[in-house]
Amino acid sequence: MLVSVIIPLYNKAPHVGRALRSVSAQTFRDFEVIVVDDGSTDGGAEVVRAHGDARVRLVSQENAGPGAARNRGLAEARGRLVAFLDADDEWLPRFLETCVGLLEGYGAGVASVTTGYFLHPPGESKEAMWRARGVREGVERVGAETDPARFVSLLAYMSPCTTLARAEVLRRWGGFYERGRCLYAEDAHLWMKLLLNESVAFDPRPLVRFHQDASGLSKNLAGARPVEPFLEHPEEIEAACPTHLRPLLARVLAARAFKTACVLGYWGRWREARSLFERFRLPGAWRLPYYAPALVCSTPLGAGLGGALRRLASLGRVKR
User: CB neighbours of 123 closer than 8 A, spacing ≥ 6?
Assistant: First the structure.
C-alpha cells in the first residue's frame, strides 16, 4: 500500500536533510515523498535534490504558509494513505510500519492514527503526560456525552508529524486551513472536523522526534500566540458538525476560547481577551476549564498581573 509522505519546506536547509534521512530509513518501504518548497530562500531545495532517493519528488510554489504547502502535497499525492513530516523534525524507523499496521488492522472505518513523540531538547517522552490526560490506545469516536476537556486533549494531541491518515478523508474535509499564510493551529482546524465526524485512533508510544530548537513556530510565537482559526471562523467548524454534536462543539470552542483569552491577557491584550471571552461564553460556562482565569485575564487587572508575572520570569532568567 503506497503511502505519500508530505514535507512542507520553508527555510529549513540546515534540518531538512535529517528529516529526509529519517524517512528513507523507514522499515516500511512502499512510499513516495513529496517535498513542497514553499518559497524558501536559503537553498533548502538544493539539499532535497542532493538527497539521492528516487522516491523523493520536489515541487515548488510561492510562499503561502504551511497549510497551503501541505494541501499542495495532498493534491499531488498518489497514495491512499498520507503522512506529514515537518522539515525540522524526524521519525523513528518504525513510524510508518507501525501506523500502517494499526490503520489496516482497524479497518476502513477509521480515518487516521496518531502516535506519541519525544521532545528535543531534552529528549524526553511525553507519553506519561498524555496518558494522564486520557489519551490511550485504540479507536475513539466522539459522542454527545464526550467530556469537552477530553475532546480538547485529543485535539491538542493530534499533530501532522505524528498522524497517518486516509487521503480521501482529509480531502473530504477540506484539508488544512491556509488563509492568510496562517502559522498557528492551521492543522487543528482539520483535526476538529475529523474528531466530530470520523473514528480516529491513537497510540501514545513515542515514534517521532520534535526538535524545539529548530522549530520556526517556537521562535515566531515568543509572545502572545494568534487566535486559532477555528475561533476566528467557528462557522466553518459548525457547518461541518453533525447536529447532535453541536452542544458539545459549543462547549469545546468555549473552553479553547477561555484558554486563549488567558494567554492574551497574560501578554497585556486584555481587550482582545474580553472580546473572545464574551463571544464564546454560554450558559453554564463556569464549569468549563479556564473559565475563572479567563474572566480575570479579560480585565485590566488581569493584564497587570500578567505583566508582573512576565517581569518575575525575566528576573529568574537573568539570575540563571
Answer: none
* DSSP for 69-91, written as a single string: HHHHHHHH--SSEEEE--TT-EE
**pLDDT (tens digit, 9 = 90+) per residue, 15-24?**
999 999 999 9
**Of the candidates 103, 303, 291, 302, which has an alpha carbon nearest to the alpha carbon of residue 202?**
103
* Greatest CA separation for the chain: 59
pLDDT exceeds 80 at position 166: yes
What CA–CA distance (Å, rounded) separates 252 from 283?
Answer: 13
Q: Which of 81, 70, 86, 67 is nearest to 19 (CA)?
A: 86
pLDDT digits (tens, 9 = 90+) for 228-275: 999 999 999 999 999 999 999 999 999 999 999 999 999 999 999 999
Q: How many CB atoms lie within 10 A of CB 19?
A: 29
Q: Return the residue matching grid coordinates 493551529.
A: 185
Element (H, E) at 46: helix 44-49
Task: Look up residue 297 and give its three cell numbers.
Answer: 485575564
Cβ atoms within 10 A of the Cβ of 153, count? 15
This prediction has a pTM of: 0.93
Could you tell me the domains of the chain? 3-220 (3.90.550.10), 229-319 (no CATH)
Cα separation values, 12 from 46, 93, 113, 215, 316, Å = 11, 22, 27, 9, 32
CB 76 within 8 A of CB 2: no
